[in-house]
Structure formats: structure tokens, C-alpha cells
Amino acid sequence: MCGIVGYIGNQDAYPILIKGLHRLEYRGYDSAGVALINPHGQLNIYKAKGKVSELEKFAEDKDISGHIGIAHTRWATHGEPNQVNAHPHFSESEQLAIIHNGIIENYALLKEGLMQHGYTFRSTTDTEVLIQLIEYTQRTSKTDLRTAVQLALNQVVGAYAIAVLDKQHPDTIVAARKGSPLVVGVGDNEYFLASDATPIVEYTDKVIYIEDEEIVLLKKGEEPQITTISNVSKTPEIKKLEITLNQLEKGGYAHFMLKEIFEQPQTLRVSMRGRVNIDRDCIALSGFIDNRERFLNAKRIIITACGTSWHAGLIAMYCIEEFARIPVEVEYSSEFRYRKPVINKDDVVIAISQSGETADTLAAIRLAKDAGAFIFSICNVVGASIPRLSDSGCYTHVGPEIGVASTKAFTAQVTALIMLSLCIGKEKGTLDNESYLRILRELGNIPDHISKVLQQNDRLARFAQMFTYAQNFIYLGRGYNYPVALEGALKLKEISYIHAEGYPAAEMKHGPIALISQEMPVVVIAPHGSTYDKIVSNIQEIKARQGKIISIVTEGDTQVTEMSDFCIPIPKTEECLTPILSVIPLQLLAYHIAVAKERDVDQPRNLAKSVTVE
Ligand code: AGP
Q: 9, 351, 358, 552: least surrounded by Cβ within 10 Å?
């Protein structure tokens, strides 16, 4: 997510701004920049692709004087991560500068209007459209900056946290928010501004949390002025910060992984925003719409990925074959790239990668591209190597995933793949409209269902303590939940270092049942669905051999519940959507067992967040 920092007071702004950007690095970003008004009234902007240290190098020999400034770390949403698209952005006259965290959904329409008034644009960002709109409004309405911001934001659809400078008013910062966080730090005749309190806490513990649709005017020597975008005055409420710096970076959670598990209801809402339209009963995936013939005419779909992303691909195989009736092969990228596969020009290759930099997956799509296949990628990092090499794709937009163990990216990948499967099936006519609508509407309920599952966190934390002794786990699932068994096993082994295997439940009879004992917990994913009765039989076979059963069941279940030593209920949902819910307790179970074993949960030994080497 982007990071915002601002300062106005009697100190040099630049060191405070840069230190603040470093404090926000945990949010993940791909470029950084700073805007300063120096004592002569000049507005200087310096920005660089890459880390904050790159910005510092770039600014080394520049005029970094001034007691007022704003700074930004950018997590690209619109426009490649590069120096031009980095924030801050000048207005056309270079009188104003803006930084922005969020997405202006109607930026294209606004941009068209501004171009008709002769405005030109340096970048491909939605943010530059906003600062041009503010300048245009200020000029045409002949208003002060705060009013211009207020009038402009009334034309904006989307989410924003912004800070704006006007070199003609070097004692003022105007900031506003809707959907993205913004905090004001109140110092002694100085103000701090930031996306969260992390850059502020070392200077003051007095903060004002800006609420949605509020605009704040910060002026040296005066009280903060808060109004709504409807121009209603609000009294600033100063609160006391109670938490430490380290806690702040993790949003109060003990680890990034736990924070990211709990972010999933919101990250899926963001991921589906503008794509799943319940009111219009449709799914709009631009990557599919722009390339529908390629998908409709595909004789085969090859999915290539690694690790957790490969598990998402396996779920997609069940969906695509059920709804779109197109044969699907799911390949480990590392095997696919070397086994001399047969790839045809009418193949569609879907590459799944959270980081967009996994070396094996990158090599796999290079191979497929050379063979003339159409490459579609599902990635979480805008402008990463894999989406750049792809013909089209779909970003998951869940924000940076800091914990090495993938959680929110996985559920977003699965959601994107289900949306894609539904689009293809509907267009091909292989999925009846009633099923399409039923699943589409249930997709809209999934974030709330996840919130309900997360309410069992404390219960799972207590239960996890009983399994720290285990040396081995086995995870079982059938159908859509067989890949979830694989994912649950991977989560446990990669952060707790306990050996775990995922298996199709019916495969137990073909060998693994020899392993069953009291010492090896068996996790069975057994929601109601087409294979429920079969998995009940599998559980009976395990119980007959004194296996300990931990089960994921549908709320209200009795049969599996009675056979289990521990049950985690999940809300009833469409069978193809159960993986998004059944994985949540497995993420929490792995997390709490790892914490109980005092593992380094966010950076487990030997692992990297992005495997950019073979
Ligand atoms: C999952 O928790 C692991 N971090 C790992 O398996 C990961 O999914 C794999 O390395 C693929 O990474 P990618 O999605 O960035 O390509």
C-alpha cells in the first residue's frame, strides 16, 4: 500500500519526511518521492524508482531546504512503477504538488474533460489527474486551495488519502481522505501527517484521526481546521497514541502473517471491487473481456505456478473444467520449463504468482510465449516481470503481502480464477445462467463469511497448543478441497517446521493409512458438498485406527462433527467457493502452532518471499 508523510513546523522538513518514509517501508512500495517548499517559495520535487535509499541518493546534491513538505512511497496501481509515475505529482503550472494513496476509479473520464481544457499529462497515473483537477478548479472558481480540493473531491469516485502543497501558500498543507487512512500528529507549533502513526509516534503522542470525506487544513501557528467535502465544519478530536512503533507497523497484530490473515475480508472486497457487480448481476474482468475469443476458442488451458500459487491453480482446474468444459493442465513451473512440453498456438497459459518474479514461473511463460501461446497472468505486484511478459492478466490488488507464508494473496488468486471460470462458462454457454447468478451473488457474501470464520481465532489459538508435540500431520480433502489440503499442509510445514502432507482423502487406502496413529493428527476438510458422504467413509476408516481427527465442517454439520476430536465450522456456501473459507482455519492453525513453537513466523528459516532464483 502507498505511504504518505507530511510535515509543517520550525524544523527542517526533509530529514523528518525521509525518516517517515523509512518507517512506512513495511507497507511495501516500488518508488518514492518528496516535495518541499524552500525558504524562497520554490516548490521542489524529487522522486526515484525503487527504495527510499534511491531517493536519498538522487536528492543528495539537490536543494532540500524548507520547513514544509510531503513525501510518498508508491505501491503501483495505475501506471508502471517508474520515476515519472512516482509521487509527488506537479500540477501543470507547477504551483501545486500532490501525493495520493488510493484509486480514482473515474480518472479516465476526469482526464478526458481536463484534456478538452488543454491540460497535458506527464504520467499515466490517476493521481496526476486529481492534481490537475484541483488546479483547474482553483483557477476557474478562483478559490483557495482547501475549497478547490473540496470541490474537486466532490467529482471523484474512488478511494484516496491525499496531501497537497501550494507554493503560493508555503505555510499550509491541505489533506483529505476517503477509504485510505490518514493521521495528523499534533506537535508544539508543528504538524505531522501520515498514513498511520508509525512516522509520527517518535515526535508526539497526540494525534487526530481524519475520517472518511474529511478535509484538514494544517497551518503553522493555527489550530487544524477540519471540514467535510460537503463543507461542514468538524471539531478536531485530539487522541493519545497508546501503542509502540513496532506494534504500529503490524497494525497491532503480533505478526504480519496474522495481520494479513485478518485483512482477507477487506482485501477480497477490494479485489472484487469494480469486477463483481451484484446490482448488475455480472462479472467484469477486463483481461477476459479484451481477449474473450482466445479463451472461448482455447482447446486447452495450461496453468503454471509454484507453491501456494500452484494450489490456487489446482482449484482453478476444478472450476474451469466444471464451468467452461475446457481441459486444464496444472504444471509446477520448475517441471514445465524443462520437460519439453507440447505447447500449441491455441493454448491459453495462465501464470499465477503473488510476487510476479518467481524465476521458474517466469521461465515457464517465456517458453510458452515462444511457442505462440496466449499468456494470462494473475499477479499481486503491478509492473512485475511476469505481468509485464504476459499478453494480459488480472491483478489481485491485495496490497503488499509481507509475511513469507502466503495467505491473502492465495484467497484473492482463487477468487480471481473463479471469476474467470464463471466469465468463460457464461460466454461459452456451458454454465447455465441460474448457476452463474447464484455463484456470483454468493461471491459477494464471501468477505462476511470469512469474517465469521475469523471469530474462531482465539479458540484455534488455544487448540493449537495441544499439537505442538506432533512431528507429522496429514491433511485430507476431496474435490475442490483437495488443493486446500495441500495448502494447509504447506502452511504448517513452512512456518512451524512440522512435517505435513496433503492428500486426496480417498488415497489414504493406497498407502498413507499405514501411517495413522495417535501421534499424527489428521486434518480433514469436509464441508457439505458432492463428495461429503465419501469423505465420511474416509474418516471412519481413520477413526477405526485410532486416528485423531481435526475437521473443517459446514455450520450445523453433525455426522463429521460427532467423529471429530476438534471441529471448525465454516458458513455454508457454493461448493466451488468452499476453498476460500476452508483455508482460513488452516492458516490460523498453522500460525498458532508456529507461534506456540516460537518460530519466526514472518520470516521462516530458509525461505524467501519471492524465489527469484531456480
Ligand atoms: C507460500 O506460502 C510460499 N511463500 C511459496 O510457496 C510461494 O507461494 C511460492 O514461492 C510462489 O511464489 P509466487 O506466488 O510469488 O510466485
A: 9
